[in-house]
């Protein structure tokens, strides 16, 4: 029976380039599971190594530890909730004027639409409003003729 590779805290720190103190903090915070064993006999498994590498990947991408905790606590990645904006957060959106009083706002990052998809959507919306305008003009003309 093949035994799973184990790591000491020093080995784990060396493999991940995460300081030992930070690993302990992650364990204390619940981001990384507690090691197997206790005290000086404590050891880490491949799952600990993978978790630390995942945390490092997200930290390097600028994600906060709080958000990483949310991501790690969601078992289904497709069910990860969107990050809620906080006061002062910056977002870039496209605002497309369609008709008087009607504007289409697209958040490119959240919508996952390609530029071709957005162009097609805008064409359909403009066609819709164009056809509505034709109906308005016909209706107004009929009303004048009836009087």
Features:
two-stranded antiparallel ribbon; 2 domains; mainly alpha; Multidrug-efflux Transporter Regulator, Chain: A, Domain 2; 7% strand
Overall structural domain count: 2
Q: List the strand order in the largest sheet.
A: 1-2
> CA-to-CA gap between the ends?
95 Å
Level-1 CATH class name of the largest domain = Mainly Alpha
Number of strands: 2
The H/E string reads HHHHEEHH
Topology, pairings included?
Elements: H1 9-16, H2 20-29, H3 46-60, H4 65-73, E1 94-99, E2 102-106, H5 108-111, H6 115-146
Antiparallel strand pairs: 1-2
Structure, briefly:
This protein folds into two domains: 9-79, Orthogonal Bundle (Multidrug-efflux Transporter Regulator, Chain: A, Domain 2), CATH 1.10.1660; 94-146, no CATH class.
Task: Note down, in words, how this protein is organized.
This protein has 2 domains: 71 residues, Multidrug-efflux Transporter Regulator, Chain: A, Domain 2 (Orthogonal Bundle); 53 residues, no CATH class. The protein has a two-stranded antiparallel sheet. The C terminus is likely disordered. The termini are far apart. The chain has 6 helices and 2 strands; from the N terminus they run ααααββαα. The chain is mainly alpha-helical and 147 residues long. The chain is 53% helix and 7% strand.
